[in-house]
Design brief:
The structure is a homodimer of 431-residue chains. Chain A has helices at residues 2-8, 10-14, 29-37, 60-64, 77-80, 142-161, 165-171, 181-197, 227-239, 282-285, 331-350, 385-398, 402-418, and strands spanning 21-25, 44-49, 53-55, 74-76, 87-91, 96-98, 103-105, 110-112, 115-118, 122-124, 173-177, 211-216, 242-246, 250-254, 257-260, 265-267, 270-273, 277-279, 296-298, 303-304, 307-312, 317-319, 364-369, 372-377, 380-383. Chain A is α/β, with parallel strands linked by helices. In chain A, the strands form 8 sheets. In chain A, strands 5-2-1-9-21-20 form a 6-stranded mixed β-sheet, covered by helices on one side. Chain A has a 4-stranded parallel β-sheet with strand order 13-12-11-17. Chain A has a 3-stranded antiparallel β-sheet with strand order 6-7-8. In chain A, strand 7 (103-105) and strand 8 (110-112) form a beta hairpin. In chain A, helix 3 runs parallel beside helix 11 (331-350) and helix 6 packs antiparallel against helix 7 (165-171). Chain A starts with a helix and ends in a 13-residue tail after the last helix. Residues 1-16 of chain A have low confidence and may be disordered. Chains A, B: This is NADH:ubiquinone reductase (non-electrogenic).
Chain lengths: 431, 431
Amino acid sequence: MDDQLKFLNQSAMSEQRRRPRVVILGAGFGGLSAAKALKSANADVVILDRHNYHLFQPLLYQVATAGLSPNQIATPIRQILSRQRNATVLMDRVVDVDLDTSEVVTPARRIGFDFLIVATGARHAYFGHDDWEAVAPGLKKIDEATDIRKRLLLAFEVAENTADAEMRQVALTFVVVGGGPTGVEMAGAIAELARNTIMRDFRNINTCDTRVVLVEAGPRLLPSFPEKLSASAEAQLRKLKVEVIRGDPVVECSASGVRLQSGAEFDAAMIVWGAGVMASPAARWLKSDADRAGRVIVGPDLRLPGHPNILVIGDTAAITDAAGHVVPGVAPAAKQMGQHAARAVVAMIAGRKYPPFVYRNYGNLATIGRKAAVADFGRLRLAGFAAWLVWGFVHVGFLIGFRNRISVMLDWAWSYFTFGRGARLITGDDR
Amino acid sequence: MDDQLKFLNQSAMSEQRRRPRVVILGAGFGGLSAAKALKSANADVVILDRHNYHLFQPLLYQVATAGLSPNQIATPIRQILSRQRNATVLMDRVVDVDLDTSEVVTPARRIGFDFLIVATGARHAYFGHDDWEAVAPGLKKIDEATDIRKRLLLAFEVAENTADAEMRQVALTFVVVGGGPTGVEMAGAIAELARNTIMRDFRNINTCDTRVVLVEAGPRLLPSFPEKLSASAEAQLRKLKVEVIRGDPVVECSASGVRLQSGAEFDAAMIVWGAGVMASPAARWLKSDADRAGRVIVGPDLRLPGHPNILVIGDTAAITDAAGHVVPGVAPAAKQMGQHAARAVVAMIAGRKYPPFVYRNYGNLATIGRKAAVADFGRLRLAGFAAWLVWGFVHVGFLIGFRNRISVMLDWAWSYFTFGRGARLITGDDR
């Protein structure tokens, strides 16, 4: 262990170890904002992620639908933190946390910590049907997005290549499961791809024959939005010819399609899963209580009960804040928690008290397509073009990296005027 | 077969079949320029490729070294030809050509042709050591480039993570096999990545300790260039601290490194193969004579001997043109042959004669790094900054797609001023 410590902090260890070490698990919105907020802290910051990049997940559906390429929405973590001298980036995978020795365990080593911030995010949940994952991929990682892009584009190739009318219609049918923001965005984007972008590209099929079916188990789309905006989102989707089905849960996913509780069946080339999330295995590592979605239950101080030096944030945590709000699993909430956790650690190091976390809700956005979106800013509610403009500015504004911002803006401008999309490549192993 | 014909040419087949069908195999520089040159021909053009995109191969090494992202150098074939109404794009894989029935055979169907243009390009050659491919990937396809990028970036992660000095040096050692343009470009680009781009990103390693070894079996680098430019290229590489070894062929590649004929051994994290090419299996499909590199031997009329309606072009063909030049395996030559083949087909349809092919050599370029390149325009020979500027303009100019051109120019400008690189993502399946 001593060797590892030395290796991790060559400079700090040249003298006696004095500075406390803060280990951050995960470089998503929560973890990265915690690391940055510790910039001037008198502490060594170690941030660990299994990928070498920070991913701007809210735009991942645009990679899946060929609008953007992966490097436009991902930035190397090392690059983001290259000038923060107290930060060390490790690309590694957490397998456990040793609460007795205060060490993070990875396949090859143990990393001691004085403070631990757990921000390992969430994965899809298949509600006990893990075998559905192979036929209904979700959308959390870059490789999943490029895989969905490949399946999507290959479906049109299959349709173009077949002389069998029935097979052609199946190849042109896409089912999106889940009426939350991801599902709404995917359904809208697939419909636009088919109806606008690739219209002229084929000779044997009419891509306007594409069927996009959006299935929501609950009574309305976008349940976290006001009812009026849910209805508006549905109307905007129907205008794009998306078939919206509500109140009818999926009971079966297979390579040939989906079956719903009502008995309705859809033969489809592709199913995209956006129905549920499950927190990372952090609760298991921390031997702590978890809610039904696997999230670690922490109080408004973000602390793991019984372990004041361990804080849990972002999608990994189930939190009701000091004002009594249930904190939603969205990027702005994760960022705020990351900053709060950093301040809390600084206060603990200094032996000061710090106030509990209060979530500030700046608004809620979901996009549907070109000039189509909904936005909820409390009293101000927008739909259609205005909401879409706000959505565009907010997302470009929050993208990390000046260069990415410009490149995404240019691509969007290009798509807007030409209806084209820049990233229509089928990559990945040949099968 | 009739069914297939009908399906492929619904419009043409609604009456009696009148228009001849030209089938083009491969949508690289040769095949695509043939298809475009047939735009106003009174013929149905069917272009078949196993990928859905045309790849600008000369810039592939920039994807492998994280300078550009795949979609910046690849454009969907359907998009390129979407407005050419006589062209049909098929994504399929050729397994054979039936010379008796004049049909192309794919796994699922047969496609009849009146004229066939074979432009299926080339692959790497391992000179009888096909087992080396797994440890020494080549650079012809997008998936190979992203795989090399992943190995390259992971090597620095391994070096950063290890406390063992010897292991660290191995992880920071890269061997490039082959001193042609690809090898020279890769070696220069890896050295620049290590020395400029990621310098500040690590805490435990000094990326300037990176060793890049370029091994050429022959007596000099860039053998297709004048000797003076070969020497200049080597000097420019040495300035980037690339170790250049000439006249010493590789006799063994393994997961741990390479061994040379002289007995010299290099333990390396990664080997990149740029030493030889082998034509696609076209000679086997066509039951024809091939040279040692597997290329179909055709005359200056580009015709397969005994089959005047079959033309072979690009890297698939071994051609000495009507002026007695051996046509080199470069993109401009493939484009010229594609255009020539198209004109030849039009002439044959009209029952006219057409002149034999003459290759026009507009020059030869290879880049080494930032402000470093060599250019050979016959009498005018350039090295260094001037050659590098010419190289940049020529490559951006030939990129297909207005949008790609702008996006690559912006990325290059950004890299030039910041020494940064935009596509440093480790993607692909987790292992």
